[in-house]
Each structure stands twice: as structure tokens, then as C-alpha cells.
Design a protein that fits this description.
Chain lengths: 515, 515
Amino acid sequence: MCFKLKMFIFKNFLDFVKFSFLLIIISNNLIAASIDFSYTSVRDKILESERVAATGGSIWLNAREAKANAILMKAKNQEITEGLRNPDIYAPSMHFFHAKSRIRRSEVFRIISKMPKGSFLHGHQRGMVSSKWIIKNIMSQFNVFSCRDQRGIFIFTARNHTKCVTPLENVCTERNNSPDKKQYDRVLEKHINMFTLHPEIGLTERNKLWEKFENIFYATEDIYKYLPVFREYNKRILEELYADNIMYAEIRSSLSPLYCDRNRNYSSLEVLNELEQIVKDFKKTHPDFIGMKIIYAKKNNANKAEMCKRIDTFKELYKAKPNILIGFDIVGQEDLGEPLQKFIDELSELPEGANFFFHAGETNWFGKTDLNMLDAILLNTRRIGHAYALAKHPQLWDTIKSRKIAIEVNPISNQILGYIWDLRNHPAAFYIAEDLPLIISGDDPGIWNGKALSYDFYYAFMSFTSAHADLRVLKQFALNSIRYAILTPEEKRQFNKIFSKKWDKFIDEIINSKY
Amino acid sequence: MCFKLKMFIFKNFLDFVKFSFLLIIISNNLIAASIDFSYTSVRDKILESERVAATGGSIWLNAREAKANAILMKAKNQEITEGLRNPDIYAPSMHFFHAKSRIRRSEVFRIISKMPKGSFLHGHQRGMVSSKWIIKNIMSQFNVFSCRDQRGIFIFTARNHTKCVTPLENVCTERNNSPDKKQYDRVLEKHINMFTLHPEIGLTERNKLWEKFENIFYATEDIYKYLPVFREYNKRILEELYADNIMYAEIRSSLSPLYCDRNRNYSSLEVLNELEQIVKDFKKTHPDFIGMKIIYAKKNNANKAEMCKRIDTFKELYKAKPNILIGFDIVGQEDLGEPLQKFIDELSELPEGANFFFHAGETNWFGKTDLNMLDAILLNTRRIGHAYALAKHPQLWDTIKSRKIAIEVNPISNQILGYIWDLRNHPAAFYIAEDLPLIISGDDPGIWNGKALSYDFYYAFMSFTSAHADLRVLKQFALNSIRYAILTPEEKRQFNKIFSKKWDKFIDEIINSKY
């Protein structure tokens, strides 16, 4: 005794009241326009109101963008359809180390690669450049030595490093003497890359992931402080960003003093000058590149006196270079570091005009490390690095939204460091659904050969957003990265102008290429 | 030039305005009472407002409860402190198969085991009883045979089963003839338990998890349909619930006809009668047990005509047994099943008084399978099974809250079936922070020897809630499970009375035992 109902029929008045109530609650902004109460129509309206409320929901596409969008969505739908059939090899659900070769073959990824992505706002200077390039270039162009410290940890250096307990080996010589040079490079690269064939094993010993990660920074610290390498390295940062269609960056740097031949040392201020010059030179050859600014960032294991000193150093540097130095951060494995709360007094001395860009909530803990987010907000942070634990703190959402504190989400980093396995479970899906201020970034793409932002954008688009989310959310990611960057009005004007041009070119490319 | 500030000092009026604004937004319910603007005081108030807004936030503890709470929280803090030191062996972050032996040694778990937990509201009849007990009892007490079907899948039966292509082996005889009986039992149990030594491997081939899971149900289907086994099995369900301090259950059952010796078959209605009698008998010996009701649940791979027939069958059964049969559901791997939307017409024929308890959103997909949640709500579902994908759909939260649609969260099930690894990433942390209507359940605890609800409650308490969440959230979990159960006013009155008595006894036990 089943009747096929073309319309959703209300059994009685009560149901009707309930139903209208539901409609008002769910899509109160749409009720006025709605007189069609069929099941399908109500359902569609709720879905549409979800789309509008999410990141990118207020963007309107012009005719050409709509055309490009259709091409993008055809590719996205194909990947999803294939993924529903073979979920175990659906790249957006897989670990980056398993998925990378699949992503490279993805049409969506190819489109994203070409897309102008705006700014790179969460990156660590010494994790930015592809390890592959480092091995191929830095290790062969310069007089690089390797050694081990007393714990057996690998170190690259260009001087008699006090931490070395084994004899210095010249990397060039060793390489030339090795029977298989490619194999030698592969082994060498392992010291500066997180790759592993079976990342799933890492889930049962996640502490080791951070240890490996810290060891990579430890291995390269001294060689990156060697002025000639420093120059090449930082130039390369800009090249890799530019190659991935990124026009601007704000990079966390410790601004540690550099060394050079003949025992000449370079102070933090001189490091800033060096960086300024490198960016200037790069802009000469790449006039559509906006620039790179620096967030002063030191490790999170300081005592109060040390923190006090850092703020003082920052003040001096900031006074000298307020245009390139924009703010202050504390970095390192947050779960093991000192809580922000410890430094409230010291941190309240930040000079006028400078900003905090605190790492906070990069944790799976709840009611512990994650409280750094609360302190970051109370300290008036400009953006928050990661805020991975934010979904657990509804009391902070409104503030983040009303004060436009952008969340810097780093999908692949969170995965590789063991906070999450399937990125479709990442809380950013929720941030995007709620349209919290957010930008997508890469953290340390060099350390997993992550190609600046494209892979992270791929995951953000495919794993964090609905199957129905389209070019509008991608465009909003880029626009957010401009909006939440620290730019002068003139820089912003120029940036928007260049972005707009590049965006149009990108749209043309999609339409004209044989996607 | 750092000054230690005992108070958080506002640099200028603008900061003060910003800060008050923050305070109003974050804790608008507290502003009136607040005149203390010190950093610590503001921080504490925000944290307190988070606690109050979360599940359990409105519960007040009496003096004895407060004393018991102190004991509970001492144990919780100890585990967390130890976990911060050794995060890789912190049970709440680990997979159940790695963590089980650790959880068993946990003080928090011991307290939770003794706690009266109210109702078990999301369980599948054939996944309820510990596989260990099945092997030890069903397989030795009855004339059970095993065989393989043409795909090689294992089957237990008590008759000449048409699906068997290998000769029937008598399990008792085989066991008696085996050189190592314990080893024989272990191998046998593997056919009806999800356990694996390295669950992390499962993350790369998650489809196999559901396959294994379905094969377990397939293996036991026919033996559980054998009336003498059916009786023992369902009696055991009640015993295991009762042993874990659960007083009531609502169980999904297909009510498939039973068979017995001499070719006598039992219809679905007779199955209901059988269940009613088993519960009646159990209540005679356990007068403080409230009962067990049935949700009629069939597989999600039907066509429209079949769904129509099911609703008709349900109508008949419901007419005959409205007190024990309370509603309707569709079950199976949601990602592979038919979407709810397909059956809107058929499902709108549900008889007055009956309820839907739809599985919906048990998925990692976004904009696909998860849309079942929207249809479940539009179909006026009474509760939602899993709603794992809910955090991605802010437009549905208000409706779920205002219409008190309880979410049935099954922590261990979600983990074992590969939806999530670290349960601290489970969206339920967010549901609890937002105080969405929710109950904690076990889904199929027998299939992972999960001891009814205690392990799930342990994860819910340790992985989903803040380090500061205490006895109040646990009590609320239990109270919710009574509140969202389908009970007559008389049953509810009796339940509350019994629960209250048991709760007091539990509090006394904590205080008096040497925790």
C-alpha cells in the first residue's frame, strides 16, 4: 500500500508547522523568496544555503569563469566518481606519500598548479626549498661538509662546527668517490626529507615524526647560515614560490646570524638586509612579484628572561626594518614547548604596529596545549598558525570571525606530522563550512618536496570541501591570502591588480587548453 | 626592558574597547557579573563559559558527588600527565586494538565500568554479544556446523544450509579432535571478531574492513536464526548489558524468521514474541532492568518496491507490537548503499506513532553519502545513527538542537571501521563542546569484545572531552541516554528512579573504595 508521492505531503498541520520551523531555522535568509514547499525544493534550498554560508559563497563568477568552472568541476566529479568506486586509491583520502604520484596525474591538480594562488602566509624559512633541489644544487655548488654530533645526528656545515664529533667529510668528494652517484644523492636526501614508504606505521609512534622533523632542521641549520648558501637558498625560495604562481610570502625566520669565509659574521639586522636585497633583486627580474616579509620566530623552549630578550631584539630589528619585519611568533613542537600563558608579561611588550602570528592549537590534546589559542587571541594575535584544535572551542569562533583573525591551515604538514590521517577528517572542512577567516599554506613544503602550495591547495579543495564546492572556493582561498597578508595600501592595490590580471589569464588558459 | 606585569594592562583605550568587545562576544552571559579585567580572570571566565556551554555544563554536583569527582579527576589527570610524557602509549589516542590492555588497567576505566550508564541506544542485535562468549558457549552447547560458501566465506549453521558448498563440519567434533583446543577456539573466533595486531595497516585498504565486518555477520547469520541459539544469544545480550551497568536497550534487528528442528519456522511477529518473552523472563530475575525494544532495520541495498514492502511489513508488526517495536532504520555500509533520498515516497508511509532512527553520515565523504543526514532530518528522524559527518553541515546543527534529534555516537566502531584513527580527532569533541543532543553507544561491541559500553564511554570521556571535563559530562551521557530513549511515561519514571538509586550507590562505591 505504497503511494508514490510527487510532492512531500504534510500529514497534518503539526507536521507543517514543524516543517516550516525547520525551514526558518535552516535557511532563514531564503524563506521570504520561498513558496515552493516540495521536498526536493526544500532540500535544494538547504544545500544552497550551505553553499552560500561557506567560504567562497559570496563570489559570483562571470561568464568566462563559469565556463572554466565547468571544466574544473567535470574533472573534480570524475575524480570523485572514480574515488567512490575505488575508495582505497582516492588521493584526497590518502596520505601524501601514498598519494603524491596520483595527485600529479590529476586534472584538478593540473588546474590548481596553474592557478594564481596569492600569498604563502605560513612557512618556515628553512623548510621552504625542495630537498631535491638542495641536494642537486647546494650540495654540489658549495664546499659542503657533513659530520655527526655526539648523539649521532647528521649535520651539514661549511666550517669547523663545534658540534661535530666525527671528521668532516667533503660531500662533493664523497659523492665523486661513490660507485652510484644517484644512490648517494638519495641517501643524502633522506637526511633532509620526511618521506617514508609506509607512513601508516608512523601513527603508532608519532613522537618520532617530530624527532625526525627536528633533526632535519638541525642537519641543515649550519649550512643555511653560510652566507653564500643563504643567498642561493633564499633566492630559490622565491623561485619556487613564483613557479607555483604565488606572488607574495610572509616567512617565519629566526634571523640567526650568518657566517662567511674569513670569520666574518653577519648580525640579525644584516640578515634582514640580505633578505631585503635578495627580494629586491628578484623583483627586478620578476616585476609581477610583490615581495616577501619576515615574521621573527624563535623556539618555544625559552625561559622568561630569554623571551624578554627576544622581544627586546625584535624591538630593535622592528625599529630598523618595519617594512620587511612584520611580527613575532614562537615555534617548535607545541605539545612539548612552553605554553604562551607563561610569557604574557613579556609578550605584552610588543611594539606598536607589529603583530603576533602565533602558532597555536597544533595539537590533538584538548584542554592542554590547545589553550594556547585562547592566549593567542587574548594577546591580540593577527593570525593563528594551524589552530587545528579550534573546532573544540566554540567560544573562540565568534571572536575569530568578528576580529578577522585568519587561521593558517597547513593540510599536508598536519598529516605528515601525525596529527591526522585522512585529511577529509581535518577540522578545516568545518572552518570552511562556517566561513571562518582562513588561508591555506604549506608550512615546510621543501621537506616533503611539496611544490610550494599546489598540493596543499589540492587537498584543501578535494578533502576539505563538499563535492559541490567549485572554483569559487579556490578563488576565495587566493583572495583570503591577499586579504589577510600584511601589506601597505599601495602593495595591496598593486597585488590586487596583478592578481586580477593573472586570474583572467588563468581562466583563459583553462578554457583554451584541452582539459 | 621587560617589565613583569601582574595585571594585564591595556595600552590604550582602543585596546580596552577591543578587549571588552571580545569579552562580550566570548562570554556574554558572564559580562554582567564581571568587573575583574585581569588577564587571568578573563581567561578563566572564558574557559568556564566553555565548560558551561558543553555537555554536562548545567549539572550541579552534590557534596558526595563532588568528593567522587575529585577521585575521578585525580585519576584522569594522572593518565593525562603520563600521556603528555609518553604520548605514543596514551590509550585515548591509540587504536582500540593497541589500547585495550592499557585501558583495562586504567583507574578511569574502572570507575566508568562501575558507573550506571543508562541505555544502550545504538546496537545491532547480531553484533552485541562478545565473540569470546559465543565461541565458548554457543559453539559448544549446540550442534553447530561450519562450512564455506562458493566465495570461500565461512558460515556457521545448524541445518543443511543451501549456501554451503563444502561439507558440513561439526564444530564440537572438530574441536574435540584438534590437538590444541585453545588454539582451535582462537582460530574459530577470528571468523567473528575484527581484531588484528596491526590495525594501522587497515588504513591503506579500508574497504577490506567493511568486507571483513560484513563477513562476520554473514558467518553468524544462519546460526543465530536457529531458535535455541537465538534464545541463548538474546538472553546473553541482556546479561552483558546488565553486567556493564546498563538498564535498557533499543536494538536494531532485521527480525528475520527463525528455524528450528523439525522444519518449524518462526515469522517476524513470532520473533518479536520470542524477544518479548526473553526480556520478560530476564526482568523477573533482574527487577531493576527496564527492558529492551526493537528498531526494525533492513539492509540499505533495496529497490523502491522492496522498500515499500518493508514499510508494509513494519506497519503490520508495529500494529501488533507497538510497545516493543518502536521504529524503522536502514543499515549497512552507507557509502555503498542506496541514498535515503531514493525512498522518500516509500518512507513517508511510516505509521503514526512510529519513529525513524536512520543511520546517516557514517562516512568521510562530503557532499555525497553525508547528505543522508539532511534527508533523515527532513524525514523527521527521531535520532541519527553516527552523524559522523555533521561538523561539515552547520546548517543542520540548529535543527538538530531545537528538535532534539539525538546523535548516536559510536567511538570504537568508527575507529575499527576505518573512519578515523586518533579518536581525539572525532567530531564528537565538537558535538560535546556545542552540547548537541547526543548519546554514546557501542554499535557492535561483541565483534571487538568491547564490553557493552564501558570502553566507548572511556574514549568518549578521555578522547572527546577537555582535560577539565569531569563527572558532570559522564552523568550527562547517562542522563541523555534516558532522555532520548523511547519510553512510556511510566517507564521513564521507573528508569529515573532506578538510575538515581544506582547512581548514589555508584558514588558511594567510588568514595568508599580505595581508588
